Amino acid sequence: MKSQQIRQTFLDFYKSKQHEVVASAPMVIKNDPTLMFVNAGMNPFKEYFLGISESKHSRIADSQKCLRVSGKHNDLEEVGVDTYHHTMFEMLGNWSFGDYFKKEAIAWAWELLTEVYKIDKDCLYVTIFEGDASENLERDTEAYDYWKEFIAEDRILNGNKKDNFWEMGDQGPCVHVLKYT
User: Fold this and answer.
1) pLDDT (tens digit, 0 to 9) for every residue of the chain, 181 residues total?
2) Quick one: which of 49, 75, 40 has its CA closest to 169?
3) What residue segments make up the domains of the chain, in order of their start?
4) Beta strands in 13-155 (DSSP E)
């Protein structure tokens, strides 16, 4: 499957789940002194996550162009070291602003991967946030319990804060990464 088809299938799938499909924001951020470039798919929605303003849509899907050269949690030094850190890339995102949360997000991710993209379930692993004792953050047992409905427990891996959690300020959304082997 070509990248254009993967992207369009993703957007069509979330449109069928009542998401408003929006265009990629420009990579150069205007009116935000904290970032020079969009370095993550969530950047264009920062004002919604931080409660500065409200989105016109409670559900959004997009394919965001990103440039990995800036940000509080910069991992530019990882570019070229592994197979998944790149300098320029697109992030496919489905976003809920107070409309749904982990249960639906997990169920739809599984449906998209296994029923729409037809990825063999035996080739998939998922991660959950393992917690961080130094910051008194607990393991995400809620996501773990939802994932158990779809995948064997030995395919649910713990992801640490460095690899599985991006922050926008003192707190921020946790990203659950699906891994394909």
Assistant:
1) 899 999 999 999 999 999 999 999 998 888 888 777 887 888 899 889 888 899 999 999 999 998 876 444 555 566 566 665 557 788 999 999 999 999 999 999 999 999 999 999 999 999 999 999 998 989 999 999 999 999 999 999 999 887 766 555 544 444 444 444 3
2) 49
3) 1-100, 116-181
4) 20-21, 59-67, 88-96, 124-129
Residue with tokens 């969530």: 42
What is the distance, to the nearest Å, from the Cα of residue 151 to the centroid of all Cα atoms in its chain? 19
How does DSSP classify residue 17?
A: T
Q: What pTM does this model have? A: 0.82
Going by CATH, does the domain composed of 1-100 fall within 3.30.930.10? yes
